[in-house]
Amino acid sequence: MADDAQHDVEFDTADAGASATYPIQCSALRKNGFVVIKNRPCKISEMSTSKTGKHGHAKVHLVGIDIFTGKKYEDLCPSTHNMDVPHVLRKEYQMLDISDDGFLSLMKDDGSSKDDVKVPDGEVGEKIKKLFKLEKDTKLGCRARRYYIEDGKKFCQRGHEQDGFTQTQQEEDDFIKLGVTTRKKRLVEEHVSIALRDNEAKELYLKCLQLILWKQCHWLITEKGFCKDFETIVRDLWTLRAGIVWRDESKDYSTQNETDRGFFSSQSEVAITQIGSGANLSASKKATLDDEKLPRLLETLALCYLGMILLRLPIGLGEVINWVTRYEILYLRAIRAIPQQMRIKLPARFQVALELKAPLNGLSLYRKTMDLIQFFNTHYEIIFPPLNVPLLTYKHIRNLGLPVEIYPAIKILKDILRIDFTLRALNSSTLHPMFYPEVQLVSLIVIATKLSQPHDEIRRNPESDTNSSLLKLKWEVWNKTMIERNSTGLKRGEEITLKESDVWNLKDNDIDHGLLVQKSWPPGSDISMRVKRPGELYKRYRKIEELNGHAKAFYTLAASHLGIPLKTLVKAVFKIEIQLEAWVSTERKEKNCQRKKY
């Protein structure tokens, strides 16, 4: 019996919809809907969904307002979880009277009365009492969206009369006549181009180039320590360059019509011109020829380099190219340095000319420099001095990590080939890069290095102990130091491999260790009778593919300091080697002829 009493359970039953809420997935909720937040029925005012998290659920942020108290509630729930939604029913009652104790007498739909609703406090209650005294419909809380007109009055779909409505009578003539819309006419504004044209545009373009050139000179003086006379020299060169151009432009514009003043035509414009008459074609060609006389942005760097040449500064074009590559001197995207007031007045073609984005081509700068030298020689008979060979040679030797003992060999090779490193006025279009003075200088350094420090493993013994080639360069260590850039000082055991060229980069302690080890060097082995001398088995490289590991690294570093392609340097060195071979052959023939005479 006890067991039966224990399992005697009563179950309550209810009809469908008896619950105050029903579940729904959170992602199915919508704004202006209803939901239960913190056990309160709320109307959703804001709703936002976040991205899927690491657990694979998206969070839904809900903001709701209590439908009874007006308080705001917030909740955060995964989108896949269920939330309770309240059953919200709306009923309307007709107000019959207001009792003295502050309760409303309402009538239900079935005709029975409801007297348990108190008059709301505040502004709503006062408005209800006022409208009831005036015998007007309160219609508070009516949300009807449809209206109709009856007997000149406007009613909602629930029978509430709308105040402030007046019906107007239409004439028979205005039957099915739509209203007339009047629009205010806008003033037609003529498009006025801000950019200058023709002669004024070219003058502004020259001023922009002059500003860029001044910024470049200012950087060289303040950052690189150039003297103040450098700016004066470059300014005079620019005056001479721009003076010729402006004089020619003034002559051309004095004989042209306004319609013939076009320049820097694009490809599409050229194609359109070819379809037109022959007169337009000739005008386009003439304008293109006139534009070729204008200076380019590249000429600013060339003028700075010519100023360095006149001051005899030991700076090469390769160093200028490296400044441009490292974005130190103003050249790439130079239009950013132009003030906005000047930039907006430049035509698009000139803005493109000042907004260079491609890397600087070293050979283009060399050619432009030679063109300017020919320009100044032709118009003003200016002759530029040769390069400052001693200092510039020492600078290249140091940058390439070579021993200074090769300098006498460079002087001898220079005298043999009769090279004076002078900037001559020659046509750069037909001039081979090997005739550029700085390329010639580096080529002689490469040849002198190959003669005294060959890249192969063949042992060559000099004729005397005082020969500069006695000091051997280990290319493996050179490659590690100059190419890989891993050396920060002398490591333990590296004093034995110390060379004269390493002294410039050593600290005080490292120099002391090097000198200490030098005193303990053992004497060399005896030299046999049949030995190979320095310069024998000299190997020439005609193509890049022929370079071995150390030779390719050495050539590549030398080309990078010049700012020219590796292929160009290989060809220049090869041509000078051919000239040296021809000189050697001539010397041998003369010696053989003298022997036959005796």
Instruction: Estimate the strand proportion.
Output: 5-15%
Structural class by helix and strand composition: alpha+beta
**What general form does the structure show?**
elongated
* Number of helical segments with 4 or more residues: 18
Overall radius of gyration:
47 Å
InterPro entries: IF5A-like, IF5A-like_N, IF5A_C, NA-bd_OB-fold, Rib_uL2_dom2, Rrn7_cyclin_C, Rrn7_cyclin_N, Trans_elong_IF5A_hypusine_site
GO molecular function: ribosome binding; RNA binding; translation elongation factor activity; translation initiation factor activity
Pfam families: eIF-5a, IF5A-like_N, Rrn7_cyclin_C, Rrn7_cyclin_N
Protein name: RNA polymerase I-specific transcription initiation factor rrn7
What does this structure look like?
InterPro entries: IF5A-like, IF5A-like_N, IF5A_C, NA-bd_OB-fold, Rib_uL2_dom2, Rrn7_cyclin_C, Rrn7_cyclin_N, Trans_elong_IF5A_hypusine_site. Belongs to the eIF-5A family. This is RNA polymerase I-specific transcription initiation factor rrn7. GO terms for molecular function: ribosome binding; RNA binding; translation elongation factor activity; translation initiation factor activity. With 598 residues, the protein is an alpha+beta fold. It is 41% helix and 11% strand. The chain starts with a helix and ends with a helix.
